[in-house]
Amino acid sequence: MTSLKSPVAAEEQAATAAAAAAAKGDGERCPVEEVALVVPETDDPTTPVMTFRAWTLGLASCVVLIFLNTFFTYRTQPLTISGILAQILVLPAGQFMAAVLPNREVRLLGGRLGSFNLNPGPFNIKEHVIITIFANCGVSYGGGDAYSIGAITVMKAYYKQSLGFLCALLIVLTTQILGYGWAGMLRRYLVDPADMWWPSNLAQVSLFRALHEKEGGGDGGKGSSSPSRGPTRMRFFLIFFFASFAYYALPGYLLPILTFFSWACWAWPHSITAQQVGSGYHGLGVGAFTLDWAGISAYHGSPLVAPWASIANTAVGFVMFIYLIVPLCYWKFNTFDARKFPIFSNQLFTASGQKYDTTKVLTREFDLNVAAYESYGKLYLSPLFAISIGSGFLRFTATIVHVALFHGGDIWRQSRSAMSSAAAKMDVHAKLMRRYKQVPQWWFLVLLVGSVAVSLLMSFVYKEEVQLPWWGMLFAFALAFVVTLPIGVIQATTNQARIHPSLITMNHRRRRSLIQPGYDIIAQFMIGYALPGKPIANLLFKIYGRISTVHALSFLADLKLGHYMKIPPRCMYTAQLVGTVVAGVVNLAVAWWMLGNIDNICDVEALHPDSPWTCPKYRVTFDASVIWGLIGPARLFGRHGLYRNLVWLFLAGAVLPVPVWLLSRAFPEKKWIALINIPVISYGFAGMPPATPTNIASWLVTGTIFNYFVFKYRKGWWQKYNYVLSAALDAGTAFMGVLIFFALQNAHHELKWWGTEVDHCPLASCPTAPGIAVKGCPVF
Predict the structure, then answer these.
(1) Residue 688 — left, alpha, or beta (φ > 0 → left; ψ -120 to 50 → alpha)?
(2) Beta strands in 631-739, from DSSP E residues, in sequence order
(3) Mind listing the pLDDT tens digit for each residue in 128-170?
(4) For the purposes of burial, counting CB atoms within 10 Å of the CB of 677, is it exposed (0-12), middle (13-18) or buried (19 or more)?
(5) pLDDT higher than threshold 70 for residue 281
(6) In this structure, are residues 281 and 694 in contact, taking their beta carbons and an 8 Å threshold?
(7) Keyword Endoplasmic reticulum on this protein (predicted)?
(8) Which DSSP category does 422 fall into?
C-alpha cells in the first residue's frame, strides 16, 4: 500500500522535516507511524490565518453547506454534502481573491475596533484549513447527526405541537454549545497527547497537502498509472461536477424511475410475492438498482471514501439479514405476526394491519392516554423494522466486546500514556503548537455552564413544550459526561482495522457512526423506563445525552486537525464557535421555512404520490419517539411485550466477537480472521428504515468497484481522483436538486408520466396474512 507521495519524495520530506525539527529543538517525532508519514513537522507562525478571505469564504461555506444539507434531509433520497466540497471549491476562490483584492489596510471605526489587510499575500494552507473548520459546522448540523432539527420537525410536523421559534433555537444552540463545552474540557486528554491521533483526520491532511503542494509523479503501485497523468484535480472536479449537475435532471425531475429501477415488478405485475422481493422502495430490492447518486450515498455516505474492509463486513451483514433472516422470519416462521404487515415499511401498525393513528392515544399534553391505548390496541412494527431494532441491540454489545478484545490492551496503554505525567513529553506537533497563545480553560467552561444553565431554565420556562424535567436534563448531562471520554479514546486511537491513512474516510458522519458504540439504544431504554408515555421528553433526552457527545467528538476531531495543521488555538476557538452559532441559526431558519411553506411536508398520506418531501429520516425519528417514549420499552420489550425476544440480541452481541477473537489468536498467520468485525457486520442492517435495501446494495456495489477493483488495478488514479470524484458527484447532485426545486417543483411544474413513478410495485406493501384488508390490496 503506498502513500499519496512517492517513496523518494516522502523520505526526502521526512528527512528535511526531522532535520529542521532537530535544528530548532522542536522535540521528537510523533510515535504514531501513520502521523509521522503524513503530517508536516514544520511550521511558519507568521502565516496569516483569520484573514478577510478566511472569514468571507468560511462563513459562505458554512451557510451554503448547512442550507444544502438541511434542504436535502427532508427529501425521499436525502443527501449529505461533506466538508470535502468546501475543501476543494474554496481553493480557486481563495486564489482568485488573492489575485484581485488590493493590498490595503482597512480600519474598523477609525481603528478603534482594530484593522485588517484585505490581501495579506498568497492564499495559504492555514486559511484553507480554517475555512474547512467553518464548513464542517455546516456538515455536523445539517448532516446525519442533525437530531435537534429532527426533534423539532417531529414536534411540529408529526405531533402538530405549537412550538415557538425561540424555544426551538435554544434547543438547537444549547445542544451544539454543550458539545463544544465537553470538547474544550477534554482537550488535554483527547487532543494534546500524541497517542490520541484521530486516524480519520489524516486523509484530510493528505488532501490539504495534495492541493497546496505541487503535483508530481509517484509510484502508483503495481498495475497503476502515474498520479501525474491526466488532468489536475481541480479540472477533474469541474468536469464531473458539471456532468453530475446535468445528469441529476434525469432522476431528480425528468425520469425519477432511475432512483428505484425495480424490473421484477414489470415481469410479475400481479404477484405480491415477486413485488415484495423485487421492489426497490417497498420490498427487499432483489435485482433492483439505482442510477441516482443521491440514492447511492443517501444513508451510509459516499461509498468512494469508505474503507474496503468496512464495505466487505457490511456486505456480509446485509446479505445475511436481507436475503436470509428477513425472508425466514416473514415467509417461514411468520415472526411477530409479520405477514399482517408490509415486509418493509417505516410505518407503525395496528393488529389488523392498518396504520397506527397515534392521535388516538395522545392526550392534549402529548402524553400517553393509557385507557385509550388499551382500547385502541397494541403497537406493531413491520418485520424488517423490528429486526433492524434488534440488530441495534446486537451492535451495542458487540461493539463494546469487540473493542475490549481486539483493542482493549492498546487503548489501556495509550490512555495511561496520554493521561499520565508521561504525557508531558510532547511530540514535535505539540511543541510547535506551544508557540501560540492558548485558549484559557474558563472560556470553554463558560460555554459549558451557560448551555447547562439555559437548558435547565428551558425545563421550567418551556415545561409543556419540552416535557423533560430538570432532573431528566441533569441525568442527560451526567450520561454525556460519563461516556464522552471513553468513546473519545476509542475514536481517537483505533479504527475498524489498522489501515493506511489514505483509506480512512473523510466523511464526518460516516467516521462517527462506524467507530462510536451506539449507546443511544441504552439512553432511550433508560429514559423510556424513567419517563414512560412522554415522547417529546424522550427526544430531548437523546439530544442532550447522546447527540451532544456526537458533536463533542466532532469538535475534538476538528481540534486535532487544527493541531496537525498548526492553526493557532484561539483561531480554532473563534472559527468553531462562530461557525456553530451561524450554522445553528441558518439550520433552524431553513427548516422552519420549509415546515411552514411546503404543503403537507412529511405527511405521506396527504402528499402527492410522487412528492419528494416524504421525510424518511424524520419519520423514523418520530417512530422512535413513539416506540421508546409514547408507548415505552416496558410495553414492547418487557416480559409481556410482543418483541421481548429481541432483547436476547444484547447477549448475542456480547458473545459473537469472542470466537472471532479466539480464532485470530489461535491462527495469527491467517490475517483475514482479524478483519471479521461483528459490529460492522451488524451495521449492514443499520439505517433500514429509512434506508431501503436498494440504497445499501447500490452503496456496496459502488464501493466495491472503486475501493477494491479501482484501488487494486488503478491505484495511481485512485490516489489522485477518488476523493475528488466523490466531492464532484455530491456537489453536482446537490446544486441541481436545489435548482429543480426552486425553478420547477416550487412553482408546481410537475411532470406526470410512466417514468416519473418512483416504484412500479403497488403490491409490494401489501400484507399476505389471511383476512387482513388494506386499501388497494387483495384479501387472502
Answers:
(1) beta
(2) none
(3) 999 999 988 867 554 444 568 888 999 999 998 888 999 999 9
(4) buried
(5) yes
(6) yes
(7) no
(8) G
